[in-house]
Fold:
Amino acid sequence: MFTGCFTALVTPFRNGRVDERALRRLIEFQIKNGVAGVVPCGTTGESATLSYEEHNLVVDIAVSVANGRVKVIAGTGSNSTSETIMLTRHAEEAGADAALLITPYYNKPTQAGLIAHYRSVAAETAVPIILYNVPGRTGVNLLPETVARLSEVKGIVGIKEATGNLAQVSDVIEFSRKGFEILSGDDFTTLPLLTLGGCGVISVTSNIAPRDVSDMCGYFFKANLKESRKLHFKLQRLHRAMFVETNPMPVKTALALMGMMEEEFRLPLVKMGRDNRARLKIALKGYGLI
Structure:
């Protein structure tokens, strides 16, 4: 259902508001360069600082521009179950192909609480749900045994695994039901995850290099490991640059340097430090992006 490269879209801003024109241009750039889908309103999209109206607007734009050409996985997770249900219902009504639900952050729920949270959302909505585990951001780890139990819940179809821990990914694949889809949420380890049985990636780097990330996945699924591995190592320099400071600061700065949007963030995110910005520019020039 969800195979290949899915871009975790940034949210462009201009003068404090969502830059709808730049967002549409970014999505078209992704589609032109072969991605399987786009993911609005995730971590990379600064979703935590979007108002409900802005959140829904970004999802609506993504669905409209995609227009069935690629899939849209809308980020709709929150640290509140009722808020998550509200945002997920909107994504469903807008026509998104799936909803990406981050584990509730700050609350630090137990594994039992996580199960109750996801079951509640699945019971109240009909859109396919993809779990999202990124303990480095949320302070809670969705354990493989918990994922396995949730994989049996109707409507929960997969997980974005962003731990970067291949042992955990292996356990998730081993323990979960057959057909449960595993997407990498860590650009550095996408290829190793695919070899374990993953189906694709929700990528930060593909904002700026969608063709190469897409082709890396495509070559793998065509059993051309040599070409896939070649792109894996080529992309590593960009992956390092994308995480030299807090995501999405580097990727958004890169897109601004590429002339695709304004270099604007929502506080508490700010512009990159001078030294890291210089390192980013070197990486982009070396890759031929600027």
